[in-house]
Design goal:
Blueprint: H1 9-27, H2 31-47, H3 59-66, H4 70-82, E1 86-90, E2 99-102, H5 104-111, H6 115-118, H7 120-127, H8 162-172, H9 174-179, E3 185-190, E4 193-197, H10 201-210, H11 212-223, E5 228-232
Parallel strand pairs: 4-5
Antiparallel strand pairs: 1-2, 3-4
Helix pairs in contact: 1-2, 1-5, 3-4, 8-11
């Protein structure tokens, strides 16, 4: 069953911040970086599926949007994936369109030195500490790693358990696991409704906006049919 898409001011604000990070990364970079970021902004603004956290656009459509040929599209996508700005979730083969996801942490990392150029409010939002009620994680850095790594809950992997859900998420997307999923804890699983706890509203909103689909898939793999997933703080 599809999860309800998160709506509200905070979700919209996060998307604008991501687009702003792309823009300043390009504007303060080389001519090649400027072109790459302009193309990426156009693609994300027009075609990014925030619900599924993925970009699925054919090379022909990209070429038409960017006013270039398909060979240039291939080079650009390769440049963005090599830079780890786009992460390939599924290769495009035999007429099937490839799927890519934005690496939010990488975008934050390459734009970080220029956050203050946007303004103090943007700099504060991007660099603020995310405190928790426990000592698992102290801060979201938007860099390559967290200041304090989450406790690894995947050592116990009995089938049909929360630990096995975490292990599945970790094996599928280690970066998202370390930065986001590992902060969740299971509150309850009753009558097709799973309740999860996040350390704060920022983490809950981000997972609901960007990572709902793989989370729901991993839960159903271990627990069976899930009608609703709730994330509270």
């Amino acid at each position: 069953m599809e999860l309800k898409r998160l709506t509200g001011a905070e979700a919209g604000s996060l998307k604008y911040d991501v687009l702003t990070a792309m823009a300043i990364a390009g504007l303060h970079g080389t001519a090649t970086q400027q072109t790459s970021m302009i193309r990426l902004i156009a693609l994300v603004t027009a075609r990014y599926n925030w619900r599924n956290d993925e970009l699925t656009v054919g090379q022909r459509d990209m070429a038409r949007m960017w006013n270039v040929n398909e060979r240039t599209v291939k080079r650009e996508i390769k440049r963005l994936t090599n830079a780890n700005i786009l992460i390939c979730k599924r290769q495009g083969v035999r007429g099937r369109v490839g799927a890519y996801t934005l690496n939010i942490a990488k975008l934050g990392s390459i734009s970080k030195k220029n956050w203050t150029a946007v303004g103090p409010d943007f700099d504060d939002r991007m660099s603020k500490n995310i405190s928790q009620n426990n000592a698992k994680v102290v801060k979201v850095d938007f860099g390559t790693k967290l200041v304090t790594q989450p406790q690894d809950d995947t050592k116990v992997q009995a089938p049909g358990t929360w630990q096995s859900v975490l292990q599945s998420l970790k094996s599928t997307d280690a970066a998202s696991y370390s930065n986001w999923y590992a902060r969740l804890t299971l509150k309850s699983n009753k009558a097709g409704t799973v309740e999860l706890l996040a350390p704060n509203k920022f983490v809950a909103n981000y997972i609901q906006t960007h990572l709902n689909t793989p989370l729901h898939r991993a839960l159903e793999k271990e627990f069976g049919t899930i009608n609703e997933v709730r994330i509270s703080v």
